[in-house]
Design brief:
Layout: H1 15-18, H2 22-51, H3 57-60, H4 64-79, H5 81-86, H6 88-111, H7 124-139, H8 150-180, H9 186-197, H10 210-217
Length: 218
């Protein structure tokens, strides 16, 4: 990218950084934004918890599933280059379904005011087992059951199918709930739950203050 923009190469800039194409810089940019956004959100939650006199560490534990997943994903791709370079699309779909399922569980838990944060995602189990299986030959402690050929590729497609099944059943359960309540959109059911519980879906609803509302009206 730097060469395309006409930026001269400095001695301190590594060759692979200077030759990095636009599409890979876009991924780097997205990663930086994601990390900064996560840190800023965590700091905001910590500030609010301090103001309320509650534990600051407890909400941060909720980041563990995301940290575990984003440890497993690059580890698996590093240990299995055949997936990284030849079968990345089904693996990307699988990772996307892991994220989608986690987000869905979090939204439902928030809407229903579930006191237990959804830490468990069953789709992380096969990914974790694949990392452990692939790590064995690298450290020389146990042989890989799947190897790095046909069985590993089949396992990746199986994981994608498992993700479709698990997340699909989650979506279908919401659809059935909508049907039973004669609702015709997911928006309607979310709005109904939010109105009943007097909460907002994706943001924190601050306590009602008559003085603040009067100020806004003016």
């Amino acid at each position: 990218m730097f060469k395309t923009l006409g930026i001269p190469k400095l001695a301190i800039v590594p060759e692979y950084v200077y030759d990095l194409p636009f599409n890979e810089w876009w991924i780097v940019y997205g990663g930086i934004v994601l990390v900064l956004n996560t840190i800023q959100s965590a700091l905001h939650v910590m500030q609010v918890r301090r103001e309320e006199g509650k534990s600051v560490e407890k909400p941060l534990i909720g980041l563990l599933p995301a940290l575990v997943m984003w440890t497993f994903v690059p580890s698996y791709l590093y240990l299995q280059p055949v997936i990284l370079y030849h079968h990345l699309i089904p693996f990307v779909f699988f990772v996307g379904l892991i994220n989608a399922y986690s987000v869905g569980l979090i939204i439902v838990a928030h809407l229903t005011k579930d006191p237990i944060f959804p830490m468990w995602n069953v789709l992380l189990v096969p990914l974790g087992l694949a990392v452990v299986d692939s790590l064995g030959p690298t450290i020389g402690l146990w042989p890989s059951a799947l190897g790095s050929g046909t069985y590993q590729i089949a396992f990746t497609f199986m994981c994608m199918g498992l993700g479709v099944g698990v997340y699909g059943s989650f979506v279908v359960s919401i659809a059935l709930f909508m049907y039973d309540h004669r609702s015709y959109s997911q928006y309607d059911i979310i709005t109904t739950i939010c109105d009943y519980l007097d909460i907002w879906c994706l943001t924190i609803k601050h306590p009602y203050s008559e003085k603040d509302e009067m100020k806004k009206a003016k």
